[in-house]
Model the fold of this input.
Amino acid sequence: MASSGYNTPESQLESIVPVHPTSARRPHAITVQSENVSFTDDHITSKFVNRGSKVNVVDGQYIVTPVAQEIEFQTQRKVSKTGLMMIGIGGNNGSTLCATILANRHQITWHTKEGLQTPNYIGSLLRASTFSLGADANGQDIHVPVSDLLPMVHPNDLVLGGWDISGVPMDKAMSRSKVLDYDLQRQVAPHMALLGKPLPSIYYPDFIAANQEARADNLIPGDDKQVHLERIRADIRKFKKDNELDRVIVFWTANTERYADIIPGVNDTADNLLNAIKNSHSEVSPSTIFAVAAILENEPFINGAPQNTFVPGAIELSEREKSFIGGDDLKSGQTKLKSVLAEFLVNAGIKPLSIASYNHLGNNDGQNLSAERQFKSKEISKSSVVDDMVNANRLLFKAPAPGEKGKGEHPDHIVVIKYVPAVGDSKRAIDEYYSEIFCGGRSVINIFNECEDSLLATPLILDLSILAELLTRVQYRKEGEKEFSPLYSVLSLLSYMLKAPLVKPGTEVINSLNRQRNALEGFLKACIGLEGSSDLLLETRLW
Done:
């Protein structure tokens, strides 16, 4: 039965409102009939052939050799009881996510000028998007929600907690953020109040803007970074024990930090980083402390902000501990659109000459980014989103000479962010694409978009957390190996939701939205013994 909150009478209207399809619970209903996959009560085990090509270029000739490698995947079917601990839980993103989950969990409906609204997970790739399973007897494609391909955590089941430098209780934090409609806030506030106030967090003033100091009233005391690390680890263990959890996802959704300097002997290796923490070195950031804590507790850590949390030592530590990490920076509105349009232009044979992005932000994120060093972190993550698409077309863009380092010719990329308090959480963005077309002609595309920043970010946090939990239950083995192994520590399969995807050191970063989505679809299907989607459709094109 729907509920309007503890202090609001239930109405007959609310009691009959159906659960939104994106919030509905469905049993895992997919069985693949194939010799390449087996389903037991405990596992789904599948065989997959990873096909590709090796290319050698000799005197301008391309010598292509097809290659194939058989891999076996094993996915544990039992979904972990999962907690989500957010750093910055009292901010716009954290409070909005908590309220969204609680509204869905209690089926709270509310009124706006548009009429009655029902809680949902629209905006979530997993809950509101679909993949094709194949075609039925009539040749019609059958699509299922992404979350139905494999057993996944339902968002309503996430146990919520976390840290914040501001000690404002969660119901007041939601009100302070000014994101959700008042009628929803009014009804969900009693549930938010039960979350209490955030756990004390870490505050190193040098890493975030000085204008954040007024909010910093809920801090772990002292300057000893080793003590801070042990306190965070203890918080994770206590949260896990108190809530009888199998898994905790630790998620940074706090302020953007400045970039940390990479210093040999300090943060370049795992041992050096741990020693730097013991010595309270000034270049160890709060986000890196949280990341190390999660890694040492063998719980996944995801960085939703643009700073370089994962210094080389942190990546090496995750590899050594076989713990999972993912990042960086949530890819919500403008950047997602930018990657799509840039790919369209390049694939159409049109040469982007410059991309200029202007942003007006009025929330606390915007206030923090008004400081130059914090803005620099955001500028770096926003400016790299078209690199791989440009690199793929050397007819339009000059490549580096053989043996020459660098990325070659790229379009100019300008990023401007202005803090405009009156805008609030409703971000304004303008993108201008100046391109070369046929015979030296010029084309200019201007796009203006306005959106609630946190309402775009919240589904990304959910998707990243749910996928991270799933990936902890997937193992693989190559042909000839006896034992299954966990996936590699850096979860680059999360790239679709991230501006500056973290990948295995030394490998190519993929920013193309299509390639990122196709990779995720292909992987999830491989885990149930299916090939990736094919748009070749030979049955309609050849016979």
